[in-house]
Amino acid sequence: MNADDVLDAMQDLIISEGQPPSIQAIAGTLGRTKQAVLHYFPDRGALEAALAARAVARVDEAMTAAARRGDAAATYLRLSLPTTEDRAVALLVLASLRTRDSLPSDIDAAIERWEGLIAAELGNPLRAEVIRLVGDGLFVESLFGEAPSAQRIEDLVAHLVGRDDDKGSSK
């Protein structure tokens, strides 16, 4: 067992139960003791932070690769359709925000980095901010309502990234 195994078990339990699990539940899933889990993470807050950090790192990887391809803006919008795993982590982060006034600084810094990659690609910081805000809104909509279709995302990519014919399409 390693730290990633613990995080995988936590994420799987969030997905299956719809809420953050106890350390005991994580240990039970792994067939280990609570102390074995605590060896890697001293408390539930550390577990939650590590799971969020892992999600941020995955988006960082995707956005960095996209920036190298000249596709950061479109990639950010496409990432607004969360996977089941992304959804679980996002809900966990949102639940932890109940006790805070703002996003954790590492997440806030990551969002700033991603917007910076989009701005560098487009050469327009205001347009980059609009794309980031639209992507964020789509992500939240996907968490709490009906997710936009893949076609809708592609229509938005075409329109916002500037590769459209201005016809648009319906939801």
Question: What portion of residues belong to β-strands?
Answer: under 5%
Which term fits the overall shape? elongated
Share of helix, binned: over 70%
Largest sheet: none
Total discrete domains? 2
- Give the number of helices: 9
* Strand and helix order: HHHHHHHHH
End-to-end Cα distance, whole Å, is 45 Å
**Quaternary:** single chain
What's the alpha carbon Rg, rounded to whole Å?
Answer: 18 Å
Pfam families: TetR_C_28
Organism: Nocardioides zhouii
Protein name: TetR transcriptional regulator CgmR-like C-terminal domain-containing protein
Domain TetR transcriptional regulator CgmR-like C-terminal: 71-161
Can you put this structure into words, describing what you see?
The protein is an all-alpha fold. The chain folds into 2 domains: 42 residues, Orthogonal Bundle (Arc Repressor Mutant, subunit A), CATH 1.10.10; 119 residues. It contains 9 helices and no strands. Helix 2 packs across helix 3, helix 4 packs across helix 5 and helix 5 packs parallel to helix 8. The C terminus is likely disordered. This is TetR transcriptional regulator CgmR-like C-terminal domain-containing protein.
What brief labels describe this structure?
171 residues, mainly alpha, Arc Repressor Mutant, subunit A, 2 domains, 9 helices, 74% helix, 0% strand
